Amino acid sequence: MISIEEKLKEQHTKEDLCLLINVILDTTKVIDYKVNQGALSNILGATSEVNIQGETQKKLDVICNQLLKDSLKSCGLVRTIASEEEDFVVEGHSGAPYIVAFDPLDGSSNIDINGQIGTIFTIYQARNDVASNSEEQFSQAGHAQVCAGYVLYSASTMLAITTTGPTSFYTLDKNSQAYVLTTDSIELPTQTNEFSVNMANSACWSQGFNNYINDLVSSDNRRGRRFNMRWNGAMVADIHRVLSRGGIFCYPTHFDTPQPSAKLRLLYEANPMAFLIENAGGKAYTESTRILDLKPDYIHQRVAVIMGSASEVDFCLGYLD
Ligand code: P6P
């Protein structure tokens, strides 16, 4: 079994990028330990703080955010940091080659019910045309990512990662504490029988998206096959299922407020997941645009997300034209 370090070297990944990826992964091992502690340590439950997303921060959100910030600020390889849990960008090491954005604990509403949660990360080359403490560092199209990945803390702790080559799965060997290659080059099935959406939001959707979902759940749908639904409440878990066996994951625009709204964040949710999905042969769109062609207007920008098995994404988009 080959480790992530060996595989990155085999893929001729730049030395400083290998070092940075390992800084992130070493920090996820500490997070994994803390998540596995659960109720045994006083780290469950919420804080009294509300983050810029308007969400009450869980104790573990704050702990994991601080762990990643500390690691990235001290490694000397990161110029600028963005986090779901930080209002503004955090300055790292001026002149450093990379910038990193992350969601330290995606799906944290699952923490207190022992559900699946994960860390999502994305790495870009730093820009030399803007200040190191500027949000403009992250105004780069998703296709400029040099690495994207997530760690899913579940029955086993698994890493999905791509550095512009194929998307691969690694499993954390808890004895050696090494991430070991368990699926080399993921190939998403183009068709699927499984969709992932929060049906409770159907009153908020466009007519076109409702028509798509109504076709999926109707007994005589246009594909002549039954569909099943899964919704985990954590994008990292739902995308892991899609990468593992195909599927389509949707979080469409909501029209229940004066201004249409989206939930998922482009920089540290949609873009890294789109990079992983596309490098596994899938498709990733908002409702009209390829996600990886988008440049974030600001670090917490939200977008609609429709991603997964290519032919199912096309079918869904056909209802939205
Ligand atoms: P809802 C978690 O808060 C998250 O950002 C994604 O990980 C997840 O897919 C989505 O929101 C869940 O949203 O509205 O179903 O709670």
Automatic annotation (TrEMBL):
<keyword id="KW-0378">Hydrolase</keyword>
<feature type="binding site">
    <location>
        <position position="269"/>
    </location>
    <ligand>
        <name>Mg(2+) 2</name>
    </ligand>
</feature>
<comment type="similarity">
    <text>Belongs to the FBPase class 1 family.</text>
</comment>
<protein>
    <recommendedName>
        <fullName>Fructose-1,6-bisphosphatase class 1</fullName>
        <ecNumber>3.1.3.11</ecNumber>
    </recommendedName>
</protein>
<dbReference type="InterPro" id="IPR044015">
    <property type="entry name" value="FBPase_C_dom"/>
</dbReference>
<keyword id="KW-0963">Cytoplasm</keyword>
<feature type="binding site">
    <location>
        <position position="103"/>
    </location>
    <ligand>
        <name>Mg(2+) 1</name>
    </ligand>
</feature>
<feature type="domain" description="Fructose-1-6-bisphosphatase class I N-terminal">
    <location>
        <begin position="3"/>
        <end position="183"/>
    </location>
</feature>
<feature type="binding site">
    <location>
        <position position="106"/>
    </location>
    <ligand>
        <name>Mg(2+) 2</name>
    </ligand>
</feature>
<dbReference type="Pfam" id="PF18913">
    <property type="entry name" value="FBPase_C"/>
</dbReference>
<feature type="domain" description="Fructose-1-6-bisphosphatase class 1 C-terminal">
    <location>
        <begin position="188"/>
        <end position="316"/>
    </location>
</feature>
<dbReference type="InterPro" id="IPR028343">
    <property type="entry name" value="FBPtase"/>
</dbReference>
<keyword id="KW-0460">Magnesium</keyword>
<keyword id="KW-0119">Carbohydrate metabolism</keyword>
<dbReference type="InterPro" id="IPR020548">
    <property type="entry name" value="Fructose_bisphosphatase_AS"/>
</dbReference>
<dbReference type="Pfam" id="PF00316">
    <property type="entry name" value="FBPase"/>
</dbReference>
<keyword id="KW-0479">Metal-binding</keyword>
<feature type="binding site">
    <location>
        <begin position="106"/>
        <end position="109"/>
    </location>
    <ligand>
        <name>substrate</name>
    </ligand>
</feature>
<feature type="binding site">
    <location>
        <position position="105"/>
    </location>
    <ligand>
        <name>Mg(2+) 1</name>
    </ligand>
</feature>
<feature type="binding site">
    <location>
        <position position="84"/>
    </location>
    <ligand>
        <name>Mg(2+) 1</name>
    </ligand>
</feature>
<comment type="pathway">
    <text>Carbohydrate biosynthesis; Calvin cycle.</text>
</comment>
<feature type="binding site">
    <location>
        <position position="263"/>
    </location>
    <ligand>
        <name>substrate</name>
    </ligand>
</feature>
<dbReference type="InterPro" id="IPR000146">
    <property type="entry name" value="FBPase_class-1"/>
</dbReference>
<dbReference type="GO" id="GO:0042132">
    <property type="term" value="F:fructose 1,6-bisphosphate 1-phosphatase activity"/>
</dbReference>
<comment type="subunit">
    <text>Homotetramer.</text>
</comment>
<feature type="binding site">
    <location>
        <position position="103"/>
    </location>
    <ligand>
        <name>Mg(2+) 2</name>
    </ligand>
</feature>
<feature type="binding site">
    <location>
        <position position="198"/>
    </location>
    <ligand>
        <name>substrate</name>
    </ligand>
</feature>
<dbReference type="InterPro" id="IPR033391">
    <property type="entry name" value="FBPase_N"/>
</dbReference>
